[in-house]
Amino acid sequence: MTFSNLGLDSIFINAVEKKGYSNPTPVQIKVIPWILKGKDILASAQTGTGKTAGFTLPLLQRLSKKKHHPSRSVRALILTPTRELASQVHENVKEYSVFSDLKSTVIYGGVGQNPQVRKIRSGIDVLVATPGRLLDLHSQRVLHLDKIEVLVLDEADRMLDMGFHREISKIISLLPDARQNLLFSATFSKDIKSLAQNILRHPVNIDTSPETLTVEAINQFVFKVDKSRKAELIIKLIKDGAWDQVLVFTRTKHGANNLCKKMKSCDINAMAIHGNKSQTARTKALAGFKDGSVNVLVATDIAGRGIDIPLLPHVVNFELPNIPEDYVHRIGRTGRAGSNGEAVSLVSVDEYAYLDDIQKLISFKIPSEIPDGFQLDPRITTAPSKKKNRSRSKNSKRSRKRSGKRR
Questions:
Q1: Which CATH class is domain 212-406?
Q2: Interval 195-248: pLDDT, tens
Q3: Do the Cβ atoms of 51 and 271 come closer than 8 Å?
Q4: Superfamily for 4-208?
């Protein structure tokens, strides 16, 4: 199967080849023909499957077939949950439209709006946006959404987790009824199904089996270790293994900052990325990680969304997430689009229940061991019960709805 077999025009095939891709991924094979036909899509696709190109390429081709409006009003809207993901999606839009005359821009909060306003007023075809800034600029009459032909909700499950349900409903009410809708989500919760029923019209349902893709593409491993020695172990792994590009996930912003300090004290060039950091600091840290001047990027779940590093070799779960689906999102940062990657999790006894839930979700028992020199303290034997674990997971989701926009 080639991209030309999927019905893409030469200008978009050339753009794909310029990026170094020759064959489409499974999700691209499934979604591109349907999007080209104008169908609504409800797709289950995790990060790293090539889903961004899956919706961007056919979207751009459909727009290129029609002459833009005299006012060059926005014709396609791509909504994402975070600033980082919005930036990454826009990079893809620019790369895939390089041989066309289509124009695009990205808008998000945390930075000044004036450059974004100037770009919009110059005329664009594709807008990538986070919900808050989009509604802000619409309320200021900077942009209008009445000419939208295609709506994409990317990582819709994360947007709902972050409490954007009301904003999404408001945005939908501003769009014309006659439009194509593409909804991508890693999981299909009741809220996602309800959202889909309200937005999509006779959608094509596409399931790319994220659990299988995760297991096949990524080497997963667990080190069982006492919580108090996790920092010591990760520093040893990075130094002994000469790892030069490592993405590390922590559960909290405070934990990310503390781990960075410990790494720097051991001469490891590390930076943290989370919601308390300014957008300038987050952009600088991500740019340094991409160009190799920063070796270790420590991120919280929400700030880590949208991090797309080609051939990223290592992802480390310094702490396991208490929502199993977040594990799939995290390790999806490596092993992208079929390349090999390694995901290492440092698991203390209080996280065993989280590990059990993750293994059930991915239908895979992750190999584990106690590393040499890090024998477990026999006095620490109490792990949370499954019932307690699930309760904490639900509480976490509720907390995210309250605090997600501030992360």
A1: alpha beta
A2: 898 899 999 998 765 444 445 568 999 999 999 999 999 999 999 999 999 999
A3: no
A4: P-loop containing nucleotide triphosphate hydrolases (3.40.50.300)
